[in-house]
Specification:
- α14 packs antiparallel against α16 (466-487) and α16 packs antiparallel against α17.
- The longest helix is centred in the middle third of the chain and has 22 residues, at 433-454.
- This protein has 4 domains: 5-115 and 196-212 and 247-326, Rossmann fold (3-Layer(aba) Sandwich); 118-191, Methionyl-trna Synthetase, domain 2; 373-513, Isoleucyl-tRNA Synthetase, Domain 1 (Orthogonal Bundle), CATH 1.10.730; 573-663, OB fold (Dihydrolipoamide Acetyltransferase, E2P) (Beta Barrel), CATH 2.40.50.140.
- It is built from 22 helices and 27 strands.
- The N and C termini lie far apart (81 Å).
- Strands 18, 19, 20, 21, 24 and 27 form a 6-stranded antiparallel beta sheet that branches. It has a 5-stranded parallel beta sheet with strand order 3-2-1-13-14, sandwiched between helices. Strands 5-4-9-10 form a 4-stranded antiparallel beta sheet, with no helix packed on it.
- The chain is 39% helix and 19% strand.
- With 677 residues, the chain is an alpha+beta fold.
- The chain is globular.
- It binds one RNA strand of 76 nucleotides through α6, α12, α14 and α15.
RNA sequence: GGGCCCGUAGCUCAGCGGUGAGAGCAGGGGACUCAUAAUCCCUUGGUCGGGGGUUCGAAUCCCUCCGGGCCUACCA
């Protein structure tokens, strides 16, 4: 087979936070693929970098009272340390804040200019006069202009789903400084991506560059209509690169981030005497991006557009994976499932996570669930019980004799496992690691009965059986070594240890096809510890916020809600009494069939006073559990006609929305109709 | 409302038109004692979500319904 030339990237982690186990899904997935390709004898390089620019970094550096460069340098050190500890081996790990990146951004920019893709337009945005910066949507909070719920982000309302511009918000507040933002207009630069519409349809819908469901998604959601212009500049101050021909404007972080792939490759080329064009402008190179589904849009539309316009290779394939859940739920800080890589390392072996992820990862975008019980069971049963056990039960019998000079008859076991190699390789190639792991474990399941039947511990007792003993162990250790080779992309350390044990380093997939004979066998050392569920629990405890883990109950409530939604401007008592809050009893409640969030409530204010209210609490409450209970409603709110009928008020509740909505109740004794003062 | 995916043994999943539906784990019984309470043998367990259709033949293809997930839209 002709060696392929393959360049692989994983998404660039943002320099605003440490690596956690959710990130690791991607870097491990990618690392396995790269190691597999290398083992198969292909030229393959794994390129990554820190993503360092943008408002968030600038703000954080300011808050911490230091320069951005200091911040990103430290974060990068942490990232690289964590990756290395998980055996994620990059060929080059760069930074988007590098001279190489600045140069390449300029080059691509010129290409976009030359292709007449860049236009200018005024953008009206909110500006924080105190922080002296324009505010991205998520840095503004205010009252939704449609449903009047407070504390909504600048682009859409969590409560009613309305979309609007940040300047439409009522009483907007900057989350950076708490100041009231001003409306300001600035000149922005845009890429007219729609000029590449035909190309993008062609590229996304053909050639298997994308998983099928991704291609369908793009077709249905973006490509069926003209693509909007992409705003790729930000006015100063902004931490990033200033646009050379547009002083005072900076490239938006999502412009320079993917170019970081090129820049990091450039660094690698400079270190290894290679040419960038051999990797990014050559029909002989494959480019594979691994990303999470959240950034699909950037990598499948903008990025190919940028590459196309500037004459670089297009991605051969963009491999997209889902998110990590833990125990079937989103990672949660309070539950201790938001586990940092560094916390994991304090308690558990990185090999375990690599194997578990591999056993769960398929070629699709499905979310991957880390179930902690399954994690321990699987690692212990598969790796320790089956695989490593093969070596630990036989190696010491041949410490003095070494492996037999001729590979003995094993009833075809080695040949069968060798033959399975191509299937396993195909599964790796297709990112179907769960299938690969299954196939490998099937082999392991056949190897242990062989040892059982041959009973080397009995042979050992009879000196006349010395040759037979050595043969049996030679078979067992060869079957073990085959597994170690097949698992090498996932478990590089096990492969190394196996190489040392049998005095023949594992460097190539094809070593799985020929039995190893005649080598000395080193003194056996433990290859892998079992998972102790206690350690898993300790890791979870360690991941809980300090206040949650404390023994004495302290009321250390998080400051997050206030940060999300700062306290509104002072109002007078007169303002307050304008709002007539009343206790009301829910006398009927039903789901609105066509609405995802709405329940239709009939509220009684006592007597025969009834109000119909549509409340966005469907995801949080069952209609049945509401009937009869007392709630607090805004009784003098102007009626509003909705698609499903007229809403004659609103019930008050706290929480960010969705299933996290908490209705206000009243203590016992209150009756419907009473005003809340 | 639209798109995609998934519903197969208690759990995780394989099988995706053709011998009586499988594996691992868990459960039950036995064996062994070399090995990290590992291993080996036997075994319990399933209307393959429901219903219709195509076919000589369907878990496997088509339709429909139910349930779950992810994404997206609308409505407030």
């Amino acid at each position: 087979m002709k060696p392929r030339r393959i360049l692989v990237t994983a998404a660039l982690p943002y320099a605003n936070g440490p690596i956690h186990i959710g990130h690791l899904v991607e870097y491990i997935q990618t690392d396995i693929w790269v190691r597999f390709q290398k083992l198969r004898g292909h030229r393959c390089i794994y390129i990554c970098a820190d993503d360092t620019h943008g408002t968030a970094i600038m703000i954080r550096a300011r808050q911490e009272g230091r320069g951005e460069e200091e911040l990103i340098t430290e974060m990068q050190r942490q990232h690289e340390r964590d990756f290395a500890a998980f055996d994620i081996q990059f060929d080059n790990y760069g930074s988007t804040h590098s001279p190489e990146n600045r140069r390449l951004c300029g080059e691509i920019w010129q290409s976009l200019r030359a292709a007449r893709l860049i236009v200018e337009d005024d953008v009206t945005q909110l500006y924080d006069p105190q922080a002296q910066t324009f505010l991205a949507d998520r840095f503004v909070r205010g009252t939704c202009p449609r449903c009047r719920s407070a504390g909504q982000y600048g682009d859409n309302c969590q409560k009613c789903g309305a979309t609007y511009r940040p300047s439409d918000l009522i009483d907007p507040v900057s989350t950076l400084s708490g100041a009231t933002p001003e409306v300001r207009t600035a000149r922005h630069l845009f890429v007219q991506l729609n000029q590449l519409h035909d190309f993008l349809v062609e590229w996304t819908q053909s050639g298997r560059h994308l998983q099928e469901e991704v291609a369908n998604y793009l077709k249905g959601h973006f490509l069926h209509e003209p693509l909007r212009d992409w705003d790729i500049s930000r006015p100063a101050p902004y931490f990033g690169f200033e646009i050379p021909d547009s002083p005072g404007n900076y490239w938006y972080v999502w412009f320079d981030a993917p170019i970081g792939y090129l820049a990091s490759t450039q660094q690698w080329c400079d270190l290894h005497g290679e040419r960038l064009d051999d990797w990014w402008r050559s029909p002989d190179t494959e480019i594979h991006h691994f990303i999470g589904k959240d950034i699909t849009y950037f990598h499948t539309l903008f990025w190919p557009g940028m590459l196309k316009s500037s004459g670089f290779n297009l991605p051969t394939k963009v491999h997209i994976h889902g998110f990590l859940t833990v125990g079937g739920e989103k990672m949660s800080k309070s539950q201790g499932t938001f586990v940092m890589a560094s916390t994991y390392l304090q308690h558990l072996d990185p090999a375990w996570l690599r194997y578990y992820y591999a056993a769960k990862l398929g070629p699709r975008l499905d979310d991957l669930d880390l179930n902690l019980d399954e994690f321990a069971a699987k690692v212990n049963a598969d790796l320790v019980g089956k695989v490593v056990n093969l070596a630990s039960r036989t190696a010491k019998f041949v410490e003095t004799s070494g492996l037999s000079p001729v590979y003995p008859d094993d009833g075809g076991l080695f040949q069968q496992a060798a033959a399975a190699g191509e299937l396993i390789a195909e599964a790796y190639e297709n990112c179907d690691y769960s299938r690969a792991m299954r196939l490998i474990m099937e082999l392991a399941d056949r190897a242990n009965p062989y040892v059982e039947a041959a009973a080397p511990w009995n042979l050992k007792k009879d000196p006349a059986e010395a040759d037979r003993l050595r043969d049996v162990c030679t078979v067992a250790l060869n079957l073990f070594r085959q597994l170690a080779i097949y698992l090498a992309p996932v478990l590089p350390r096990l492969a190394e240890q196996t190489g040392r044990l049998l005095n023949d380093p594992i460097t190539a997939w094809r070593q799985s096809q020929i039995p190893l004979t005649g080598t000395p066998v080193a003194r056996f050392e433990h290859l892998m510890k079992r998972v102790d569920p206690k350690d898993v629990l300790a890791m979870i405890e360690d991941s809980k916020p300090a206040e949650a883990a404390g023994q004495t109950p302290q009321f250390q409530d998080s400051d997050q809600p206030l940060r999300d939604e700062p306290i509104a401007e002072t109002c007078s008592i007169d303002d307050f009494v304008k709002v007539d809050l009343r206790v009301a009893r829910v006398v009927a409640a039903e789901a609105v069939p066509d609405a995802r969030k709405l329940l239709k409530l009939t509220l009684s204010l006592g007597g025969d006073q009834r109000r119909t209210v549509f409340a966005g609490i469907k995801q949080a409450y069952e209609p049945d559990q509401l009937i009869g209970r007392l709630v607090v409603m805004v009784a003098n709110l102007a009626p509003r006609t909705m698609k499903f009928g007229v809403s004659e008020g609103m019930v008050v509740a706290s929480g960010p929305g969705g299933s996290d909505v908490f209705l206000l109740g009243v203590d016992a004794g209150a009756v419907p109709g009473q005003r809340v003062h």
